[in-house]
Batch of 4 targets.
Target 1
Amino acid sequence: MPKAYWIAHVDVTDEEHYPEYLKAGAPVYEKYGAKFVVRGGRHQAMEGNVRSRHVVVEYKDYDTALAAYNSEEYQLAKSLRNKFANSEFLIVEGAD
């Protein structure tokens, strides 16, 4: 079964309060066995328009990635993310 990934492209609009989102998301990542593959870091836009921050979170499979996102805990964290940042967010299944 292939792994799955949360992929987020983010522009933080409230640096002071954004850590509230990070703190609220932490229990979800632990509960669902998330592994951060990319979390910010240096990047260079080669084509198109991109946001300032990029995150890739690995899960054991697609169903687990969906369950983590749809969990009550993450929905609370998501409301904070939406309050303190603009983003695109997707869940994608990895290659076999």
Note: DSSP finds three helices and four strands in the chain.
Target 2
Amino acid sequence: MNDGFDLDRIGGFKGLATLVDAVWAAGDEARRKFEDGQIRWSDRKAVDLKPDRTPVTEADRAVEARLRAFLLSRYPTMGFLGEESGAGGLDDAGFRWVLDPIDGTRAFVRGIGTWSVLLALTWHGDPVFGIAAMPAEGDLFWGGRGLGAWDNGRPVSLSRIAALEDATVAHGTLQQFTATGRVEALRRLGERTASQRGFCDFDGYRRLLRGQVDAMVDPDVKAWDIGPAAVLVREAGGALTSFEGDSTVFGGSALASNGLVHDALVGLLGEV
């Protein structure tokens, strides 16, 4: 048992393989819906806007319904939290599945392949296992506490850049900075880091996990956006916290890094 989790919680390696297959199949169904022409940004009947103006499609709902039914049938005592259907409690041991059926719906409806299906298992709110599937890109990541982080079957390798002035930082949409009042933080990032790149959603964390960037800055996120990333980055030796440096996925913001530039970035983002 490792801080509340071991692989037996999900049925060992056989259970892991079954979970991976289920997540990939659900995502592949969404991919086919788009490629068959069932969902397009220009078709207003196919894309709804939620109250916060974020898009949701038939594919989002279908993936969530499919995986929620799978998880509740296979792990009936575990809780569930989904972006589209809400929460279903915790089990007695504090476990809950957290699902983002399509992370990057804006990318999905525009035919940009960087969207993903994100599934994490949390223990008392802390992610301990996660899967990130990117069917349109052919990429699959998984990780578990004490089990490492894996990119298409290979161990994840983070960068070794240690100086902020040498760092390349990924970020999500610029609107995230304006909407959360963090325009000055964006300016400081531009002035004090070597390079900045816009890689939205899990794609930014994918770049971090492959050593292509040294940090990912997400000013406005929910737990389902970053559950698997938290497991993967931490298991690879990096850090994922809120902007304030708190080790949580419920802080409303996320800063992930190779660990070497983390404290400097927390300080930069926290400057008044």
Note: Residues 164-270 form a domain with the D-Maltodextrin-Binding Protein; domain 2 fold (CATH 3.40.190.80).
Target 3
Amino acid sequence: MYVAQLIALVVILKPFSNLLLAYGERHFSHVPLVNPLAYIASLFDPFVAAGVLIQIWWMLSRMRLFSVADLTFVIPVTAVGYVLTSLLGKFFLHEVISPVRWTGIALVCVGSMLVAGTRRNTTRSVSA
């Protein structure tokens, strides 16, 4: 059960951190992209700062998940986070999602379901 909870945490954290980062960075869209100081200044936006902190939590959780499940399981299963990110973008940031993107989102869902139905761990042999 621990692996399932860890998967849920990893899947939930990434989309919400992306949402906060995107929302916060939209306040800085007028700044030229070549100015690295503008990106550092954007870290002081509360939404961006929260997004960065959640990204750190997500990375630590993902590292833990890699220690208990196979890479070939973790990556496809957690890809369902892309679906959640798209939905958050649509409903909270009012982004338009084209039919082609919805098709891609559906394919990600199908692929994640296929992988989720497989074993989480294989033998722990690492060749040098």
Note: Helices lie at 2-25, 36-42, 46-68, 71-78, 80-92, 99-116.
Target 4
Amino acid sequence: MAQVTIRINGYAYQVGCEDGQEEHLGKMAAEIEQRITHIKAIGGQAGEARLLMLAALLLADELHDVKTNPPASAPVAATPRAYGERRARLRRVAARAEEIASDLLDL
């Protein structure tokens, strides 16, 4: 089993993976880092756990969309409108995550 050090939000994590999967693991970490960067860009600065939770929710939302609406055979280039739609979705997901976190704190 290979050991890989990934960096997310300035923190280093030692993670094990199957031999030969090191590059793939690095790409997955980069995807998470990209989402955290977007969350921070729209004012979502928060604790480490909260940022990771929001990034996970974004990934889960994208996975849900892909499962329910498989992409067409040819990918569509990102447009300013698509970026705006993603930003709006991020805000909705972040707001929902805030609601969930608030509900959990009230328990």
Note: The chain has one domain: 2-106.
